[in-house]
Amino acid sequence: MPLRPNQLELLAPARTAEIGRQAILHGADAVYIGGPAFGARSKADNPIEDIAALCGFAHRYHARIFVTLNTILHDEELEPARRLVHALYEAGVDALIVQDMALVEMDLPPIALHASTQCDIRTVERAQFLGDVGFSQLVLARELNLVQIARIRQAVRPEVALEYFVHGALCVAFSGNCYISEAHTGRSANRGSCSQECRLPYTLLDEAGRVVAHDQHLLSMKDNDQSANLRFLIDAGIRSFKIEGRYKDLAYVKNVTAHYRQLLDAILEERPELAPASNGRCVFSFVPDPARTFNRGSTDYFTHGRQPDIGAFATPVHAGLQVAEVLAVGVRHIDVRALRPDDVPPEPVVTPAETPVARHADDRHLVRPVLARSEAREVEFDARFTNGDGVTWFHGRELIGAQVDRAEPIGHGWRLHLSRPTAGSGLTRGTRLHRNRDQAWEACLARPSATRAIPVRMRLAATKEGVALTVSDAHGHQAEAVLSGRFARAERPAQTEAIAREALAHLGGSVFCLAGEPAEAIELVWDEPWFIPVSQLNRLRREAIAALEAERARARPRSPRLAERDPPPTYPSASLDFMANVYNALARRFYARHGVGRVDPAYELHQARGEVPLMVTKHCLRFAFSLCPKQAKGVVGVQGQIRAAPMQLVSAAETLRLEFDCKPCEMRVVGRMRPHIAASPPPRMEAPLQFFPRQFKHPAERLPR
Description:
The protein has an 8-stranded parallel beta barrel, surrounded by 5 helices. A 7-stranded antiparallel sheet has the order 8-29-32-31-30-9-10. By secondary structure, it is an alpha/beta fold.
């Protein structure tokens, strides 16, 4: 079923089908997962059999499963990709997330297509075009602000849903426009094998060769966190809220999914005109807190316009929550006191003056103060330590870590016996200690930590033949089971009714729960109570529940593929350079069919010689180090003295030129492909994709017996 304009969808990642199941149980309305190939995450592949089982599980809650087929495809891979799509459709997959326009040209089953973030959807014209050619959901660029999102929403056809990343790791480049990994290692980001050159340390030199920053992770971004912006994003037109993380572990997916489920449920409670995109009520056995799982610090990036301090320059890894202060240092142990919330200053509040994204009066409702993180969610400071915890601290700019081999409470603090000697580690009295692995927290999330059930009401009524049990949910689905026979009048009516309600209320093992207490949610309609054996009531309940599941499956149509508009829309440009990522003949045919006269081959075909932009990014190092001409505007003695001259990024192996385009406020990282990479054959599938002769049942036929 496609996403309706009034529905809000929480979209969670899954490295495996089991993680996908847990994402559903923790509140996801949809899950995206990689198939056996072409999924843009080379180590997150899943067999079709596992995806089919995940579809059957998710569809019971009317949740959706999307498969990522978002690499660019070599000509030799087109037929295996086509066969894979047919197998995924047969397995029950609801939609494909794709980048390569060759898939639009193929003879595919009527499966919905979503445009990946790799399609670089950051202009109204491109979004409009992709919607018009048949993409039913668009994953917008992470760099867009609220006003830009709102303008895209106004321009695209109403049946096209807008999707936006709300949490997780940020690629510094516009997605689809990063070639630095291919140029330096032969591992293509557009093929799912990014070597993460952006997380390496670099030295920044100005136009005169002077050092601006030495040996820092200058292209590494903090992690995305839109917790405080969900209402603004809804107002701008976002309907699918996407969590990044197909490489992340189970604890991350459980925790972050539950966190956003609670935030969205609060909004749904406030705004009855909106509805969740799937069914079921979640109950958690823990308090969700994204700060306690992997992150590089948080930023809401460009949602409210350009902000300072979006980079994770100090370290690209997870330092963890700041939890303690060192009181004394031994040879292999430290004594610490736990910090209180007042010991850690909150992140600064962003004010409207710092979010100048509105240009017209109609846009100003989208520009509001962002809550400080301490207001948006209160971090729990757990004063307890556990054997096996991981702790980190900064020694200058270097992040150092150790495992807690043994934790002992002492007085008003803790003695932590470490896995490494303290000498030379930078540990001194007053050092702030972070915890990047919380054993007690991870143990909690390793156990079952959520239930999800669909509330139902029951009506047991007498009929001429016996009794009928009607079960209905709040979404308009209803089913009935009948028990024939004549039953004796109950000698103790009140006790008989209580026993009947108790038997009917046993819904464990199903996806349903009662919508209230048995006396409220189970209606008994008869002139006088009958004595019905509990075994027969149990059978009646099981039959009614099975019938309701079958009815819900029948009432859930598959998401159709959105038809291309007629006549075919014209692409907004008459020519395309290598950044269009055209890697095969079918993609070239697609663009030619939509009015593009010249199409350059993708960078992965190794035909772009010399220096080219290896990365295009909204992140600006001139701005980060207060060297932006716009920052100097109006400053006495500084205005006119700063130019957007090129700079250099230097690492042990490479020197890259930085070019600044101030009109769109973008930075280009310019370099060349290493000779041995240029001389190697273009990347393609290493081994044939195997298909197994197995037929998958339609979701309605996969119900439990």
